[in-house]
Amino acid sequence: MLNTVYQLKRPRQFEAVFKRIDMDDSQIFVRPTYLSICNADQRYYQGTRNKEVLKQKLPMALIHEGIGKVVYDPTDTFQVGESVIMIPNIPEEQDEVVAENYLLSSRFCASGEDGFMREFVTARPDRLLKLPENINPYVAAFTELVSVAYHAVNRFDRSAHMRRKRLGVWGDGNLAYITSLLLKKRFPDCKVIVFGKHWQKMADFTFVDATYEITSIPQGVLVDHAFECVGGSGSSQAINQIIDHICPEGLISIMGVTEELVPINTRMVLEKGLTVKGSSRSGRDDYKGLLGMYKEHPDIMDYLEKIVGARIRIRSINDIIEAFETDIHKISGKTIMIWDK
Ligand SMILES: NC(=O)C1=CN([C@@H]2O[C@H](COP(=O)(O)OP(=O)(O)OC[C@H]3O[C@@H](n4cnc5c(N)ncnc54)[C@H](OP(=O)(O)O)[C@@H]3O)[C@@H](O)[C@H]2O)C=CC1
Ligand SMILES: O=C(CO)[C@H](O)[C@H](O)COP(=O)(O)O
Ligand SMILES: [Zn+2]
Can you give the residue ranges of the Alcohol dehydrogenase-like N-terminal domain (predicted)? Predict the structure, then answer.
């Protein structure tokens, strides 16, 4: 059968193409319902990736955060009409050491192949998870982003030393909000301190213990471990400020994505004996763990609802452009597309 795929042809230009999909016994058909825009999608949409990357990856359907409804399941794993979270990471092998999101052979929707802006997404049963009942679909749409923070917090917990009195989070955007929220819920006895550029944005981080503007951090403010949730051109400043404010033998978790190489003060990384740990994407176990955390702490959902931003119904390519342009000009929050295609 033919599937309509809404691909980014070149920066700021989408087109609908028709792709043949063969029905077989292993692929479940899902109709996307709520999709959420990530900074990675914006880098393709605005053409801020380097030319070679754009040439290699486009045309490609964007979006790797989303939920949908099962319309056909030859595997009998889900019921028709059931809402599911779509997992964009697609592993092709298992490894006893390397997690699915770090395997070089893994594929990723909206990075190396079409993302979720399609009429139907076809997926193996292990790439879908049943959405719990009564979950707000606008929040569920960005489960992938929350699972990335969950994954990084888990990695931190497995590797960082046990002095965890103060945990620093650099950044004041969506990823910083989510990471500090998960840290506070997971380690309620630790102080979570946010270091951001905009006090107006940090005012929404009501659940943390302190916030500082990065231009006026009082002398003597130190953290045991830190999370970098900035990315882009702010990466270098954030990472170097972390190096200045972290105690010896602390762990720095880097999550921000940047196109440029980032100069960092390696002398002080050495002198302080720091561990720098990168975290990218997430895997099925992270989604499952996160859904368990939602069950244990239902108020996480209330906090996540606060970062739902614009909600835009998509019926045409012009609506898609409107969603991406709105997202560029937002102050904060996640832009959600109600996928009515
Ligand atoms: N590792 C992964 O798998 C994932 C990584 N990401 C990446 O994480 C990064 C953050 O994402 P997101 O929160 O959505 O992005 P945002 O752009 O919303 O957040 C970053 C925020 O940090 C602020 N900022 C800039 N410089 C500094 C600084 N030196 N110290 C503290 N704060 C600063 C920015 O302000 P201003 O805008 O004024 O510069 C902005 O408000 C992005 O690079 C994104 O691509 C996202 C998802 C998954
Ligand atoms: O957003 C992300 C995961 O949620 C990552 O930033 C994204 O996977 C990076 O992909 P790309 O290399 O295509 O920018
Ligand atoms: Zn993303």
Answer: 25-133
